[in-house]
Design goal:
By secondary structure, the chain is mostly helical. 50% of the residues lie in helices and 5% in strands. It is built from 19 helices and 9 strands. Strand 5 (302-304), helix 14 (312-322) and strand 6 (328-330) form a beta-alpha-beta unit. Helix 7 packs across helix 9, helix 9 crosses helix 10 (213-223) and helix 11 (242-252) runs parallel beside helix 13 (277-290).
Amino acid sequence: MVLVALAACTVQVGGGAKPSALRDHVGINGLLADPAAMRHRPSLEVTIDRVGAARLTGVAVQHVPSATLIDGLVAQLDGPARSDLELRWASYVGDTARVGKAIEALGRQCGEKGPDDCDASVHSVWSFLQVSGSPARSELARTFPDLRPPACPAKAATVGDQFLSLLCGRPVRDQEAFDAAVVRETNGDGRFADSRTLWAAAAVARAGNLKSDELRTAVERAVGQSHVEGVFFDETPAQGTLLTSWALLHLAGGDRGGVDLDALAAAIRREPTDGAADRVMLARAGLALLGSTPVPGRGGRLVLRDPDGPYNPFIALAARDAGDLRLVSVGFSATQSRTTPERLASWILTRRIIEGRPITITDSDASVLRGMADPKRTATAASNPVPALLRDAALAAAGRPSEPVTVSVGCGGADWLVTVGDECDIRSSLLLALRHDFTSHQGAA
């Protein structure tokens, strides 16, 4: 079962235009993020932390996930992280047999030379069993005889330090110190940065017999958030990039209603470029599309040397938007490009954008391109339209006829975004826009 939820990000609304789908793609850093990164997925870890915090604080949980749903989430994991979460959930529901099996699995996975995430997983399990007072602590101690409590912190001013104090055997009993730590963690707005810290705060309060209306409210708010059948969604904040900011602005065109354009321009200017020619170009392109000044000075020349670079045509397109097209050139030969259909298509597209005219190709080239969407070579267009879209755009760039693939548009309410599976796909959207550009705006030879 695949469950996804689109995380809505709120930005300042300006003007009276129809709200744009761009509003839903503003990342935590103010730049526009890949739509796929904005789609939060079900998280067993977040679910365990929230329901665990609720149990520790006496807050009722309305929906508990079914065993089938939990098993499906566990099956998507592997290694020590799987054993960690499987054990914690089994302990929560009182399945002692499954707890024992998870400890055995963790012992096999984290022998003398286990994966890098062994230490974190083992200590996570130990912390959970300590807080819950589970009798499985003795079994974990036999499996990992060198496991020791953490050193007690010198001060206990933060929730993290107070949690360490609990684990080292010195639970915090100072109500004022705990209240101050909660306020510091929530910045006074009653929201914890993540569910793991929320659970740790609940554990500290329970161990020290401390009361906190703010903590209880935070837990109630956490278990009241969106879920599917009791499973909450991950909390990873989406980060925007210069590339996705430019791409989404390019695709959206004038569809910008309700977007704080000044804030977006400021975020683009803040993003470090380190003087790299491609990053400077992307920043200039994004600001040019926004019509925002000042614009950073031009970077150096940019030679696209990797024939396998999947973004070569898009970098050239961004350079065109920035007015920097004369600084971009292709640094690999036609011979190198003809080694794979994907290389050939990318080379044709990039040259068409740079040269501004249809590219002359051979009949053999056209035949290779038309074979890109052969069902024997690729998935169907519905599940993976990129090969067919590459084919169509490249043939249009060369002025050759083609039977264009039909794709689903309108993803997330934007008629400029292509849907692939259940995701909004930027690459497919750009390729579709390029084909339209070549056949409609510039004309095919």
